[in-house]
Amino acid sequence: MLSLYVAVAKKQGANLARLSGTVQNDILKEYIGSGDVHLSGAAGDADCYGYFCVVPEGVAEVEYDFDFGVSHSRGGSTAVQEVAFTLADAIAYVRAALDAGLDIDDFAPQLSFFFNAHNDLLEEIAKYRAARRLWARIMRERFRARDARSLLLRFHAQTAGSSLTAQQPENNIARVAIQALAAVLGGCQSLHTNSMDEALALPTEDAAQIALRTQQIIANETGVANTVDPVADLMPSTI
């Protein structure tokens, strides 16, 4: 898909250096999360990193998203397991890129992550904060990254569809709001809120609008976006 995206841009005469986007090119997740073993492993992703990091015409703002966490969480993993598997997944890709001859600071700033958000509010906030701190230490101490951007664990969060019930679906509005708040307080960069009726069918227009309004209420009416790290004093890191 990424190759097709670039090919269409070239055909239309677009400036590749101005293109942006995110690809979930996480084949290791497919091996374990979906049981699909059809393509090359982490080395294939290293080829993508190399093309978009070092060639003059490379796309400047392509992110490589590891959605290992969301797949394992949906499958029943604990919060600790979700972080552990996701970081192990990312480490494998970083090693493959380094083995291919890339410099850590050439590609690491373009890496991003994808986590689930569940109902245990405090545990979920702690999960994200721990993952961010662990990744910074891994990049700095194990891979000797020097660029501060390489230390950042930027992540997308999706509320937990597996937690939603077909019975009394209106209660799912509260579940999604709690899960979304946890992701925001944990420091997510982008967020997907599930609709209340997703345990039944594709979301209706009204349900999708409520999911959108949930994000807007959190962003504009709760005050949590007014502080860089509102739970810092409540959850000091000991890692």
Word description of this protein:
This protein has a single domain, classed as Alpha-Beta Barrel (TIM Barrel), CATH 3.20.20.240. 49% of the residues lie in helices and 10% in strands. It is built from 9 helices and 5 strands. Helix 8 (171-186) crosses helix 9. Residues 54-61 have low confidence and may be disordered.
CATH architecture: Alpha-Beta Barrel
The pLDDT mean sits at 84
Structure annotation, total helices: 9
Q: Tell me how many strands there are.
A: 5
Find the CATH topology. Answer: TIM Barrel
Write the layout of secondary structure elements.
Layout: H1 2-11, E1 20-23, H2 27-34, H3 42-54, E2 61-66, H4 68-74, H5 79-99, H6 104-107, E3 111-117, H7 121-142, E4 155-159, H8 171-186, E5 190-192, H9 205-221
Parallel strand pairs: 1-2, 2-3, 3-4, 4-5
